[in-house]
Recover the amino acids of this structure.
């Protein structure tokens, strides 16, 4: 396969949030402390690829998603979307070229909007991310209005119809006069996705899009995302803590722990031959829907430490079942072990 | 004899207009001493309502219209409220869905457990405190952390504290309603491990209400699958997961991703569960059923729950005809 330019490139992304200090610490000039939510994450996503960012709460996966869309400003590092720096772009200093328009016609605001048109986010909770007093039509049409993308009511209806029907809400006019409260959880999440799709973006960041949904409905939302990639070539960054759903429809998987990627590789390979002890533990605790295959769970005690006091050496060593003394000192870097499979562990 | 035997339990909810919605119809199951039962189904299938009916904690609009709940040789549904209070928490206690987020934020965790102990068991504050310490240790929380407030606990620890509270009166049955939803996978596994450990240690009988089939497969001896307020399949975990007979159970299994088989296709179940005010006249799953055997009778007559083989009950007109299900081959 020819290596085309990746649609998304993340280079050494770091995002630190300052911790609020007590007045006493300010007066005694104690150094400000930081939550190192993301600390040196690099990866690239090809056009039309689905990448899973897997990790527990506190691993930094959502922060990566926010930075990718330019919703936050990275502390360090660069994110390139289609070759342009997203951080600059989100500040209104994005690419000035747009088909059919002159360079000077692009205001700062307009430039930010070109980013939003091309990269969209799907949030976790379809019960809270929809305005309960807006009808489905208005929810899905709102992005079109904000971006002044349609000239007539008929055109707008056409695009809303197409977005809803792509998301399996057909016939669209059966749904668009309803309020979110009249819809089931799965339907609401489809509305959220339709609202993102109506702009026909190239990149979707889906942040735990199914974790609030019933198992039987999860499959239909995931199948929809999968179909979007197949039929429209949309690139998807899927963040989740659920390895089983990630295993079913993503191409590659990046496992995150405490702000770092610890393992990255083709999904099937990572799940079948995990090389990092954290990945192995995560896989071992996913319940398998068959009592004949009950497995020994590799339960890690405690929780992800907070990202203020990062352990020395390998961040995972205090909870690692395989840790050796060297792990306390050496901070392992992500290195290739086979093909495109990378692991950050000195023992791998 | 079973520890708990539920027979033909039916619950209605009364609407403001006076209509009765049949939320649960003819649900029956039994729980052996030290056994575990998983109740699975989509949201709105009535699984929580059944549990609330067992404890007689239904909201005001709820009415138990039929059935028996035999516990210790007597029917709980005939108990007076005062007698029922002796059963709740002492014999049968429940970890409510989302309870970990309902801890009182301005009181220490310890004081909240002490409160329930003093209501049920002892008035002696010192004894109650001591017992609270033991309970916290039992669920894996250092006793001294009981003096902290809920916000100083992580989600997993709050859930442990809630479980400690449910165990305060040493019940013989613990009902856990979605005990791990909203928790991270690793924490989920810790809670599951804790429940398994407690079950063995305290000889608890466990009822787990969930939509997560994986959890049930890992912890429960028997599984009751509910759909639209009725039982569609009831058998041992092994049978339900490996040779399910009801089309709904089969679809549910196929919709559940298996981490050991990445890349396999996931079937979704088209359509939505029936609304209580618009229940189909025949089999409740009929409008969504894609089984090749489906016939006119499915839309007309509610199939009874029949025993197709020993200890395997299925509510489908064609359960006997249909060959055993082989995963991945249904189409």
């Amino acid at each position: 396969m020819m290596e085309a330019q990746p649609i998304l490139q993340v280079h050494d992304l770091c995002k630190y949030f300052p911790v609020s200090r007590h007045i006493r610490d300010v007066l005694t000039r104690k150094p400000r402390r930081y939550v190192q939510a993301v600390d040196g994450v690099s990866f690239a996503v090809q056009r039309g690829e689905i990448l899973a960012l897997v990790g527990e709460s506190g691993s930094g996966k959502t922060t990566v998603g926010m930075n990718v869309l330019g919703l936050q400003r990275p502390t360090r590092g660069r994110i390139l979307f289609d070759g342009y720096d997203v951080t600059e772009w989100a500040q209104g200093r994005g690419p000035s070229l747009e088909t059919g328009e002159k360079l000077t016609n692009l205001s700062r605001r307009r430039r930010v909007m070109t980013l939003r048109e091309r990269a969209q986010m799907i949030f976790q909770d379809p019960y809270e991310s929809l305005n309960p007093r807006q009808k489905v039509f208005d929810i899905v049409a709102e992005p079109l209005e904000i971006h002044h993308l349609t000239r007539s009511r008929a055109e707008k209806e056409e695009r809303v119809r197409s977005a809803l029907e792509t998301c399996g809400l057909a016939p669209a006019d059966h749904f668009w006069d309803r309020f979110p409260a009249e819809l089931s959880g799965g339907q609401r999440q489809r509305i959220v996705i339709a609202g993102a799709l109506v702009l026909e973006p190239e990149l979707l960041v889906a942040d735990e899009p199914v974790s609030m949904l019933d198992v039987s409905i999860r499959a239909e939302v995931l199948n929809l995302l999968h179909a979007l990639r197949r039929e429209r070539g949309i690139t998807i960054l899927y963040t989740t803590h659920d390895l089983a759903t990630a295993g079913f429809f993503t191409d590659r998987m990046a496992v995150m722990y405490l702000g770092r990627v610890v393992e990255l590789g083709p999904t099937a390979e990572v799940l079948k031959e995990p090389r990092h002890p954290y990945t192995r533990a995560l896989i071992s605790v996913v319940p398998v829907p068959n009592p004949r295959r009950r497995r020994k769970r590799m339960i890690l005690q405690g929780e992800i430490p907070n990202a203020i006091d990062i352990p020395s050496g390998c961040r995972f060593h205090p909870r690692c079942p395989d840790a050796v003394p060297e792990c306390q000192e050496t901070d392992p870097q992500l290195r290739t072990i086979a093909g495109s499979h990378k692991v950050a562990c000195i023992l791998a | 004899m079973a520890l708990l035997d539920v027979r033909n339990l039916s619950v209605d909810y009364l609407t403001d207009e006076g209509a009765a919605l049949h939320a649960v119809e003819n649900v029956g199951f039994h729980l052996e001493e030290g056994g575990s039962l998983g109740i699975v189904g989509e949201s709105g299938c009535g699984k929580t309502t059944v549990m609330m009916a067992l404890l007689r904690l239904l909201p005001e609009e709820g009415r138990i219209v039929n059935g028996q709940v035999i516990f210790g040789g007597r029917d709980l549904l005939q108990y007076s409220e005062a007698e029922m209070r002796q059963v709740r928490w002492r014999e049968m206690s429940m970890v409510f869905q989302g309870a970990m987020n309902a801890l009182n934020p301005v009181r220490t965790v310890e004081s909240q457990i002490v409160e329930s102990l003093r209501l049920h068991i002892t008035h002696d504050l010192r004894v109650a405190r001591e017992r609270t310490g033991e309970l916290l240790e039992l669920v894996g929380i250092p006793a001294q952390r009981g003096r902290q407030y809920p916000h100083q606990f992580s989600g997993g620890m709050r859930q442990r504290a809630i479980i400690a509270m449910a165990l305060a009166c040493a019940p013989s049955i613990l009902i856990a309603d979605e005990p791990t939803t909203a928790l991270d996978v690793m924490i989920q596994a810790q809670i599951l491990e804790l429940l398994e450990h407690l079950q063995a240690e305290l000889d608890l009988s466990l009822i787990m209400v969930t939509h997560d089939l994986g959890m049930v497969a890992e912890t429960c001896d028997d599984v009751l699958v509910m759909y639209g307020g009725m039982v569609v399949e009831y058998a041992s975990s092994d049978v339900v997961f490996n040779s399910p007979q009801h089309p709904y159970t089969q679809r549910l299994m196929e919709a559940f991703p298996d981490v050991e088989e990445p890349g396999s296709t996931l079937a979704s179940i088209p359509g939505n569960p029936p609304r209580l005010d618009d229940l189909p006249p025949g089999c409740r799953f009929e409008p969504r059923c894609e089984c090749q055997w489906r016939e006119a009778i499915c839309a007309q007559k509610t199939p009874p729950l029949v025993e197709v083989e020993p200890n395997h009950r299925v509510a489908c007109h064609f359960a006997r005809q249909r060959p055993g299900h082989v995963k991945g081959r249904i189409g």
In short: Chain A touches chain B at residues 56-57, 184-187, 214-220, 222-223, 241-245, 247-249, 267-268, 271-272, 281-283, 285-294, 297, 299-301, 303 (CB under 8 Å). The domain at 8-343 of chain A is CATH 3.40.50.300 (Rossmann fold).
